[in-house]
Amino acid sequence: MELLSVVLSVLVRGVGIGSTYALLAVGFVIIYRATDVVNFAQPALMILGSYFTALYVHNAGMPFPVAVIAAMATMAVIGALTERVALRPMVGEPPFSAAMVTVGVFFALFILSFRLIGTNPISTGEPWGFARLVVGDFEFRQIDIARTVLSLGAIGLTGLFLQRSKAGLAMRATAMDQETALAQGVNVGRMFGLSWAISGALAALAGVMISAGSGGTVPLDAFIALKALPVIILGGLDSIKGSVVAGLIIGVVEAIALSFNTTLTPLIGENFYLVVPYIIMILALMVRPYGLFGTAEVQRV
Amino acid sequence: MLAVENLEVVYEDVILVLKGVSLSVPEGGIVALLGANGAGKTTVLRAITGLLDIHRGEVTKGKVTLDDRPIHHLSAPQTVAAGIGQVMEGRRTFVEFTVEENLRIGAHTAERGTVEANLDRVYTLFPRLAERRRQVSGYLSGGEQQMLVIGRALMAQPRVLLLDEPSLGLAPLIVQQIRDLIVDINQQGTSVLLVEQNANMALSIASHGYILETGKVVMDKPADVLREDEDVREFYLGLREEGASSFRDVKHYKRRKRWLS
């Protein structure tokens, strides 16, 4: 019973954090599919998302759920603006150059977030904190449940939007063949903007989810978002399904490594669990460079 | 009426591809635009549909008008909304989409209420597509893919349909089917500009034909006149006055394939 309880709590914790990683990764995937650019600015968008949530809660007095939605909308606008200003001129340039532009955007927004947040952690006023949920003999952290439900829910809605809606169809068409999409009357530039808007909104939600259950948000939390890189490498850069599966795998493996942390410390030092996602990434790159669900690049021989 | 007047197109600011091309597609007509590779046929279509800029091309002189309204400076989505439908060369289906998704994306600029009726129309026109509506389009045969992209263009209810080499890479029997379908579509009220290398097929259904050579229109005559023209028969239809003679008798120096210059 004792063991089962431990295993279950590790699993729930892993799935919780894993779905947040998946949410971050989906943000990368959507922009990559639409524009062939890996958006390194995503972590900064995430931090600004938590900042705006905190701002709306404390300064505008909004209830937490409303503040989160308002922050997501704000980040959608900022995402679309970023695309219009910084990335649109790069259309037709090599994706690598455009990716470098996103690195520049990352630093600009990251420094901005230092200015806005300062050195003290800010709280988003999230309701979960360290609260626990007791089901029979088992005890879970509420935040893990919230992370799982909200992140997977947001991913599900995004998937549904891409699969069912007219704009989603146009976005997928743009991802496949831009010229043909243009010839059908799809405004390709608007689709690029839309992909950034969606990623911005998802990043905002991920920001709130990451900082919830800890002491608050500091700008350096942006580096947690880099966990999305192992996730997209393992899942495949162009697959939402892959992001979910890989996010959960990496979250659970990380949670397992964390639970063995005290045992492992004498052997390999502290905080080994932080490295685990990157070890998985290297293994994935060696075995299956295009990821579990990614499209293998077709090459003529 | 779709009219192209004195169109001059330059790629990359230096490569002069069209040197003053004029042609017109009357309301409800089928017009053929013939020419060898590199003559500029596809460039004419790009100029009409606003796809030049992504190929770093530019209209430097002349104009394209649809019912006297200039459209050569419109973006691609705007020309689609204006009523120009286009089937690009090489089929270009969205290979990962199902047949129905391919058709729906064609209706992107159309009003929401028209989609179902147009789907019905396309499925009636191409029963083969109706059978395969849930299939991934990349697995269709070449002929079916060609039908799919024509159907996709029809979803926007274009007034003028531009077809870029619909016979490319298809078996003769399928080419005939496609030809008959083009006639059907035309009879339902869509004007057609048919760009082809297969002059035989194009001239058999067109009312008027243009022959494009290195960026200039060198012949502009009714289709039945073109069919009887000695040069067209030899160079585009592959027929000679003596009939199918031995290749030993072919004398290339006798008459070169040039009309001007």
Structural write-up:
The complex is a heterodimer of chains A (301) and B (261). Chain A is mostly helical. Chain A contains twelve helices and two strands. Chain A has one domain. Chain A has helices at residues 2-35, 42-58, 64-87, 95-117, 142-164, 166-176, 178-183, 188-211, 228-235, 240-259, 261-268, 276-287, and strands at residues 132-135, 138-141. Chain A has a two-stranded antiparallel ribbon. The radius of gyration of chain A is 19 Å and the shape is globular. The mean pLDDT of chain A is 87. Chain B has 261 residues and is an alpha/beta fold. Chain B has a single domain (2-249), classed as P-loop containing nucleotide triphosphate hydrolases (Rossmann fold, 3-Layer(aba) Sandwich), CATH 3.40.50.300. Chain B has ten helices and ten strands. Chain B has helices spanning 41-49, 76-82, 99-106, 115-125, 127-131, 142-154, 172-187, 199-205, 223-228, 230-235, and strands at residues 2-11, 15-25, 30-35, 57-66, 69-70, 84-87, 160-164, 191-196, 208-213, 216-222. A six-stranded mixed sheet of chain B has the order 6-7-8-3-9-10, sandwiched between helices. Chain B has a four-stranded antiparallel sheet with strand order 2-1-4-5, covered by helices on one side. In chain B, a hairpin with a 2-residue loop joins β9 and β10. At the A-B interface, α6 and α7 of A face α2 and α3 of B.
